[in-house]
């Protein structure tokens, strides 16, 4: 069976370093046989989660689209920038909306629980946004997402890519490709066991 992976970045910025890193990891997943769907959170135009908005208007159509996209995929490949030691608010907002009840009354959390995920991060700093991954892991863990130990944090990321958005350091590239491939293999094992 073909494993479907949703690739999502916490930064939709033009020239985003995290998006470039995510693209490399996605290539690794495709190399292992996965079908990868890259999505831009900015394209959903999600409102900030607000309980009053949900009570008055229901879960917004944008969030329902995101829920449907999560439902249609077996695994998650996530890149997150680090902002002040945490991970991107856009990602937290997206996870919060996905976790809300679906239109048919089924649980949004069920869209996340039991899915495999792999994380990458990129930062101009030395630690490559590693702290953001730790914070994101805690939240994904609470949601029942199975976060792989295979991950990559790219430090000095502003100097790491060439003009073709390829990683200059081939050892780093190999490690990032491995993250995507490991996610595909794990998702395949999970799918075979269900
Ligand atoms: C508000 C803000 C806070 C930041 N805090 C951190 C930080 O704590 N650690 C870090 O490594 N980089 C930090 N950065 C730098 C980001 O890692 C850098 O802007 C990165 O390129 C953002 O990811 P992107 O290129 O995918 O958009 C911060 C940037 C901003 C704008």
Keywords:
binds flavin mononucleotide; 7 helices; 194 residues; 43% helix; alpha/beta; two-stranded antiparallel sheet; Rossmann fold; 19% strand; 5-stranded parallel sheet
Counting structural domains, the number is 1
Secondary-structure element pattern, one letter each: EHEHHHEEEHEHEH
User: How many H/I helices?
Assistant: 7
Listed once per kind, the bound small molecules are:
flavin mononucleotide
Gyration radius (Cα, Å) is 16 Å
Annotation, overall tally of beta strands: 7
What's the CATH class, please? Alpha Beta
Assign a percent range to the helix content: 40-55%
User: Mind summarizing the main beta sheet?
Assistant: 5 strands, parallel
> If you average the pLDDT, what whole number results?
97
CATH superfamily: Flavodoxin domain
Q: Please state the structural category.
A: alpha/beta
Share in β-strands? 15-25%
Provide the low-confidence segments as ranges: none
Outline of this structure?
It contains 7 helices and 7 strands. It is α/β, with parallel strands linked by helices and 194 residues long.
Q: Can you walk through the features of this model?
A:
The protein is of the alpha/beta class and 194 residues long. It has one domain (4-193): Flavodoxin domain (Rossmann fold), CATH 3.40.50.360. The protein contains seven helices and seven strands; from the N terminus they run E-H-E-H-H-H-E-E-E-H-E-H-E-H. The chain has a five-stranded parallel beta sheet with strand order 2-1-3-6-7, sandwiched between helices. Helix 1 (17-31) packs across helix 7. The longest helix has 24 residues, at 170-193. It is globular and about 50 Å long.
């Amino acid at each position: 069976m073909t494993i479907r992976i949703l690739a999502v970045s916490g930064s939709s910025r033009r020239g985003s370093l995290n998006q470039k890193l995510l693209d490399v990891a996605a290539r690794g997943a495709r190399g292992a046989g996965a079908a990868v769907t890259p999505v831009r959170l900015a394209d959903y135009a999600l409102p900030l989660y607000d309980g009053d908005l949900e009570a008055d208007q229901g879960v917004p159509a944008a969030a329902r689209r995101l829920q449907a996209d999560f439902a249609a995929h077996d695994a998650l490949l996530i890149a997150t920038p680090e902002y002040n030691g945490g991970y991107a608010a856009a990602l937290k907002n997206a996870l919060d909306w996905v976790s809300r009840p679906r239109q048919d009354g089924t649980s949004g959390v069920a869209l996340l629980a039991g899915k495999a995920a792999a994380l990458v991060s990129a930062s101009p700093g030395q630690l490559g946004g590693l702290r953001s991954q730790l914070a994101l892991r805690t939240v994904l863990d609470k949601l029942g997402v199975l976060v792989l130990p295979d991950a990559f944090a790219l430090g000095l990321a502003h100097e790491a890519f060439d003009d073709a958005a390829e990683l200059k350091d081939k050892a780093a590239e190999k490690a990032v490709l491995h993250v995507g491939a490991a996610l595909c293999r794990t998702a395949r094992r999970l799918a075979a066991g269900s």
